[in-house]
Amino acid sequence: MIVVYGIKENLNPIKAKLSDVIHGCMQSVLGMPEDKRAHRFVPLDREDFYFPGGRTDAYTVIEINMMAGRKPETQKALIKSLFQQLENQLLLSPIDVEITIKEQAPHQWGFRGITGDEANDLKYKVNV
To answer: What is the pTM of this model?
Structure first.
């Protein structure tokens, strides 16, 4: 699951394209299937979104929650791909983007009435 935060006036107009860019990177780097898009957008009022100096109102935070298992080099490739594609396709400067990957053990995920460690029919690999 991916959660994206930003100032609503800047985030709302680009949500659909941003979702496409993020999912495209997830597909190309992690091998995620087309139908595994789980994105949540949290548009905030300017007064509810504090961020570091040197950033613009385009500042966007992307939190990627995933089951543990991806190699550090795979995670770094995902982050770098996101920076590149967000700049190329949405003109979001890397200085205005923050990306965090939060890993949880498979037994800490619940979906379709089972835990992640019980799922044996995933259409993608976790250990890449």
So the answer is: 0.89
